[in-house]
């Protein structure tokens, strides 16, 4: 799907901001969020909050649990994105590695959905749903008998 240029540019800035929070810096993410209600979060570590005051505290808490010393190799893979008028959304995966104290590397995949609203001509994030991706247990595609 094609998106407006300003939406694509916003998503590039968001990719950098999401990487920054995985490395312990919440500020780039926080600059992209709306301060106007409604804003909401269904977080991968459990917090389900709404309102900017609640979200900003959660973003700082998440960043405090993360750092470049133990989390690396971040990438945000957007599977679906669309923006029409003043609303948009993305669906994808955040992938990175956790380096444990005993030297193991644990890959982490977070399924993420974001909702965006254009405010005063600028895109802002208004909702995030993230959860740790479960194993895909869907049935394998059937093979044709040709």
Spell out the blueprint of helices and strands.
Blueprint: H1 5-22, H2 27-32, E1 40-42, E2 48-50, H3 52-65, E3 71-84, E4 87-99, E5 105-119, E6 122-132
Parallel strand pairs: 1-6
Antiparallel strand pairs: 1-2, 3-4, 4-5, 5-6
Description:
- The chain is of the alpha+beta class and 146 residues long.
- The chain has a single domain (5-132), classed as Nuclear Transport Factor 2, Chain: A, CATH 3.10.450.
- The protein has helices spanning 5-22, 27-32, 52-65; strands spanning 40-42, 48-50, 71-84, 87-99, 105-119, 122-132.
- It has a six-stranded mixed β-sheet, covered by helices on one side.
- It starts with a helix and ends in a 14-residue tail after the last strand.
CATH topology: Nuclear Transport Factor 2, Chain: A
Low-confidence stretches: none
| Largest β-sheet summary | 6 strands, mixed
SS elements, strand count? 6
State the end-to-end CA separation.
34 Å
Q: How many domains, as an integer?
A: 1
Order of helices and strands: HHEEHEEEE
| Mean of residue pLDDT values | 92
Q: Specify the CATH class.
A: Alpha Beta
Short description:
The chain is α+β, with helices and mostly antiparallel strands. 26% of the residues lie in helices and 40% in strands.
Question: Keyphrases for this structure?
Answer:
146 residues; alpha+beta; Nuclear Transport Factor 2, Chain: A; 6-stranded mixed β-sheet; 3 helices; 6 strands; 40% strand; globular
């Amino acid at each position: 799907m094609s998106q407006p240029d300003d939406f694509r540019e916003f998503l590039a800035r968001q990719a950098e901001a999401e990487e920054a929070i995985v490395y312990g810096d919440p500020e780039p993410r926080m600059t992209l969020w709306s301060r106007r209600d409604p804003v909401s979060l269904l977080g991968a570590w459990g917090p389900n909050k709404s309102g900017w005051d609640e979200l900003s505290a959660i973003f700082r808490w998440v960043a405090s649990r993360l750092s470049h010393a133990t989390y690396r190799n971040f990438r945000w893979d957007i599977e679906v994105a669309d923006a029409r008028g003043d609303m948009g959304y993305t669906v994808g995966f955040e992938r990175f590695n956790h380096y444990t104290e005993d030297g193991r590397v644990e890959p982490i995949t977070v399924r993420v959905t974001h909702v965006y609203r254009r405010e005063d001509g600028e895109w802002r994030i208004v909702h995030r749903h993230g959860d740790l991706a479960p194993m895909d247990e869907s049935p394998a595609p059937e093979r044709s008998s040709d």
